[in-house]
Amino acid sequence: QVQLVESGGGLVQAGGSLRLSCTASTRTFSTYNMNWFRQAPGKEREFVASISRSGGSTDYADSVKGRFTISRDNEKSTVYLEMNSLKPEDTAVYYCAASLVLRPTIGKNNYWGQGTQVTVSS
């Protein structure tokens, strides 16, 4: 069983930045692709970003491309999401997830974190 714990969420003004972290309780962290999803109130959970096991490949949703950057540190079993130029529509609970495939659908994630709230005020 892999436990994922997110941190770094909070309240920020539009145009601001936040950095989310997700730390895994496993020595096999490097065997998983890592992903960020988000879910806004009243909406379905959606894909945000994905990074391969080695960190050599990344993928982003069109809505965050150029503003968000996903990275990982396998030594620390941690994945990050650097979020810049934040918009009110980025407000959501952000979840990290571990999967065996890159850019997985919701059901293809093996493990999920509990989520961290990001609120962007206008």
Which features characterize this protein?
122 residues, mainly beta, seven-stranded mixed sheet, four-stranded antiparallel sheet, globular
Element string (H = helix, E = strand): EEEEEEEEEEE
Q: Determine the number of helices (DSSP H or I, runs of at least 4 residues).
A: 0
Structural class: mainly beta
Distance between the termini: 40 Å
Rg from C-alpha positions? Answer: 13 Å
pLDDT averaged residue by residue = 96
Main sheet properties: 7 strands, mixed
Content of β-strand: over 45%
* Anisotropy-based shape: globular
How many strand segments? 11
Catalogue the unreliable spans.
none
Helix content: under 10%
In short:
Helix content is 0%, strand content 50%.
Model description:
Strands 2, 4, 5, 6, 9, 10 and 11 form a seven-stranded mixed β-sheet that branches. Strands 1-3-8-7 form a four-stranded antiparallel β-sheet, with no helix packed on it. 0% of the residues lie in helices and 50% in strands. It has 122 residues and is mostly beta strands. The chain has no helices and eleven strands.
Topology:
Layout: E1 4-7, E2 10-13, E3 18-24, E4 33-39, E5 46-51, E6 58-60, E7 68-73, E8 78-83, E9 92-99, E10 109-112, E11 116-121
Parallel strand pairs: 2-11
Antiparallel strand pairs: 1-3, 3-8, 4-5, 4-9, 5-6, 7-8, 9-10, 9-11
